[in-house]
Amino acid sequence: MYRIGPYSLLQLPHMLFYGPPGTGKTSTVLALARDLFGPQLYRTRLLELNASDERGIDVIREKVKNFAKTTSKETVPGYPCPPFKLILLDEADSLTGDAQTALRRVMELYSKGTRFCLVCNYVSRIIEPLTSRCAKFRFRPVDELAGLVKVRDICAIEGVQLVEGDETLLTLLRIAGGDLRRAITLLQSAHRLSLPVSMNVLSELSGIIPDVLIQRGYSLCQTEDALSMMEFVRTEIIRGAYSVQQFVKQLGELVSGDPTLGTARKAMLGIRFAKKDYLLHDGADEMLQLMDLMGYCIYY
């Protein structure tokens, strides 16, 4: 019997896949469609839409509704071919509120012959009437061991040479942070630019800031030398063309792992780091925000 979790593939509910990017959510739906309908029939029984591009209510009323209201009973020998179609809405958390409300109604009307697969990064952005109609599956960041096996296979098939062997791949996976798609893309870029691939090349391509600079910045945060801190920000980070957001992220990781800081102070600093990250995402001045953050670390 074909199954996904506790569900038979012949009696699938509507599904909601959520979790970080690059963890295989969309690939799982596409693989499911192939297992259900076969490599030939699945193209006519699956509608794939990227909700970040087509996010308005008109898409739901036209494309989705028109596809959902038609029935299909074709079968292919060797495949289950249940009497329903699949609609994949990728990045469903980008749908507008009106579009999600319209989608709820479409799901109610055409649930007999259509199954909806919603894929998103943030389940909190999906309205409750939709989540309550779906079986929810949470995808975690790709485990380092599983990721290592996959990228090692890719290197063997594509003939990618590595300077430090598995250490290079482990560095790659740590940079990707559980995002296997990002890891593969970064490996591809490094292979095109450098042969063999080294850890230094991966760090340069990914925009990772050298640990020496992070440590120096943190050391300045532990002093009361505001002038040296301002000079460091201006010359080393801004003129060095490093990403301030990346610096804030790496500095925050260093602060959170410092055993000499108390829990209460780490909590206060964590809130401050989160606010600065939000402001930088929102387009605030990089130099002013970083100087303010490091100044806060000095005095608090």
UniProtKB/TrEMBL annotation:
Q: Which GO terms describe its molecular function?
A: ATP binding; ATP hydrolysis activity; chromatin binding; DNA binding; DNA clamp loader activity
Source domain of life? Eukaryota
- Which GO cellular component terms, listed alphabetically, does the Swiss-Prot or TrEMBL entry include? Ctf18 RFC-like complex; DNA replication factor C complex; Elg1 RFC-like complex; Rad17 RFC-like complex
Q: What is this protein called?
A: Replication factor C subunit 2/4
**SUPFAM superfamilies, alphabetized:** P-loop containing nucleoside triphosphate hydrolases, post-AAA+ oligomerization domain-like
Q: Which UniProt keywords apply?
A: ATP-binding, DNA replication, Nucleotide-binding
Q: Where is the AAA+ ATPase domain?
A: 11-145
Q: Name one GO biological process term.
A: leading strand elongation
Q: Which family does it belong to?
A: Belongs to the activator 1 small subunits family.
